[in-house]
Amino acid sequence: TRGEDLVESTHIHRVLQSILGLKTPFYFHHPLILDSNGARLSKRTRAQTVRAMKTLGYSPKDVINLFGKKNLLSLLSLIKNT
């Protein structure tokens, strides 16, 4: 899966994969997950990863609840459609 911020780049990625003779993967673009300030969670900003949260003892329900109702619906939709 990829964040929906990469939707516009998908075409050029597919073209490059074709030129290089690579198999094109299936892409699913999910809604971005935002923190309480509205900033997206990303490696670039060194946001805590879901894996780290799991290691710290957070349950999947705890993690989902951290993102609020707006993102909860998106996460549930993502889970349902995978």
What does this structure look like?
The chain contains 4 helices and 2 strands; from the N terminus they run βαβααα. It is elongated and about 45 Å long. The mean pLDDT is 80. It has helices at residues 10-19, 50-55, 60-66, 68-80, and strands at 2-3, 29-30. The chain has one domain. The chain is mainly alpha-helical and 82 residues long. It is 44% helix and 5% strand. It starts with a strand and ends with a helix. Strand 1, helix 1 and strand 2 (29-30) form a beta-alpha-beta unit. It has a two-stranded parallel sheet with strand order 1-2.
Topology:
Blueprint: E1 2-3, H1 10-19, E2 29-30, H2 50-55, H3 60-66, H4 68-80
Parallel strand pairs: 1-2
Keywords: Aminoacyl-tRNA synthetase, ATP-binding, Ligase, Nucleotide-binding
Protein name: Glutamyl/glutaminyl-tRNA synthetase class Ib catalytic domain-containing protein
Organism: marine metagenome
Give the gist of this structure:
The chain has 82 residues and is mainly alpha-helical. Helix content is 44%, strand content 5%. It has one domain.
Distance, first to last CA = 9 Å
Strand order of the largest sheet: 1-2
For the record, the count of structural domains works out to 1
Q: Uncertain segments of ≥5 residues (pLDDT<50)?
A: none
Please count the helical segments. 4
Can you give keywords for this protein?
82 residues, mainly alpha, two-stranded parallel ribbon
